[in-house]
Amino acid sequence: MYVTRPVLPDLRVYMAALQGIWQRQWLTNKGQLHDALEWALCDHLRVSHLSLVSSGTAALMLAFRALELSGEAVTTPLTSPATVNALTWCGLTPVFADIDPLELTLDPDAVERAITPRTRVIVGVHIYGIPCRIDQLQAIADRHGLRVVYDAAHAFGTEIDGEPVLKWGDAAILSFHATKLFHTAEGGAVVTQDPDLKRRIDLFKTLGIQDEITVALPGINARMNELEAALGLANLPLVEPERRARGEIANVYRERLAGLAGIDCVAVPRGVRNSQQYFMVRVTGASPVSRDDVYERLKSFNVFARRYFYPLCSDFSFYRDAPSANPRNLPVATRVAQEVLSLPLYSALGTTGAHRICDIIEYVFRTTR
């Protein structure tokens, strides 16, 4: 039982799409299926503009470059390396701020303290599909004249009071990696409400080529090809059934683990429709066994949970010497990174599989006392 399993369509559906690609002999560079997937995703996610790209990391880099950012970026240490490394690749200096102890997203007060005259952008992460404190972060950005970019790799379909979380910020990025709820094997997207920004990103992702003789800006190749777009179009109708199935599994975890001292299920805030990308627990000091021991014991039963995200990005050798990376500056994130564990969550697991995993966790706790 792995932490996730890729959602895959009926092979016949995908093969039919491939047959069309073979007939058209158009494999990449804004093909028919690429455009169809952009339109379908805008409709599904209820957003104005979306640009498909080759990965979530590329999406971050393109957003930072298209917004012409430089200087410092305030961000969270509890995230994928992609978030922070993309900043570094674009010449920005990551400045780490601590997180909220319950929601695990950026703490607005910590963000305010981290701002300097060199700060140009706040990069929030909707970690585990839990939205950042968007109103508070936007208010901080407005006071200081900053941009806001959201890493929404975990937040496909996440809503706040019925509104898509992707509508907030100057840009939000999605990852369509094979491990995500919706995927194209590899891929991603930049979402924005600004049509001019969408046009700049579309230029940046195609080497800056405007026409046969005009290269308008120094872009890169970050295009999504037709084979990936075909997989995305075949997968999109599967998203809601997959989400519902994962919701049933999550309910089993919550019910079974609620009474187990030392296991806290990470809660979804009121009014939030979660992506069901991950099911996270925290193994706290009240537990008779450490998080790492639970992780290793689960593996002995062929259950492969993941410690998302451990270690913190601020602990990486190339960031740890920054003043903001000092653990004393990040007490909540430092503690949380020692506690979080992502349990398997995918429809094929079923509620039976979830019950088995809960049985194993209960056994581990009982035999450790």
What topology emerges from the helices and strands here?
Elements: H1 11-24, H2 32-45, E1 49-53, H3 56-66, E2 72-75, H4 81-89, E3 93-96, H5 108-114, E4 119-125, H6 134-144, E5 147-151, E6 159-160, E7 163-164, E8 171-175, E9 188-192, H7 195-204, H8 226-235, H9 239-257, E10 263-265, E11 272-273, E12 279-283, H10 291-300, H11 331-337, E13 340-343, H12 350-368
Parallel strand pairs: 2-3, 2-4, 4-5, 5-8
Antiparallel strand pairs: 1-9, 6-7, 6-11, 8-9, 10-12, 12-13
Helix pairs in contact: 1-8, 2-8, 3-4, 3-7, 9-12
How would you characterize the overall build of this protein?
The chain has 369 residues and is an alpha/beta fold. It has 2 domains: 220 residues, Aspartate Aminotransferase, domain 2 (3-Layer(aba) Sandwich); 130 residues, Aspartate Aminotransferase, domain 1. Helices cover 38% and strands 14% of the residues. It has 12 helices and 13 strands. The strands form 3 sheets. A 7-stranded mixed β-sheet has the order 1-9-8-5-4-2-3, with helices on both faces. A 3-stranded antiparallel β-sheet has the order 7-6-11, with no helix packed on it. A 3-stranded antiparallel β-sheet has the order 10-12-13, with helices on one face. Helix 1 packs antiparallel against helix 8, helix 3 runs parallel beside helix 4 and helix 9 runs parallel beside helix 12. It is globular. It starts with 10 loop residues before the first helix and ends with a helix. The model has no long low-confidence stretch (mean pLDDT 97).
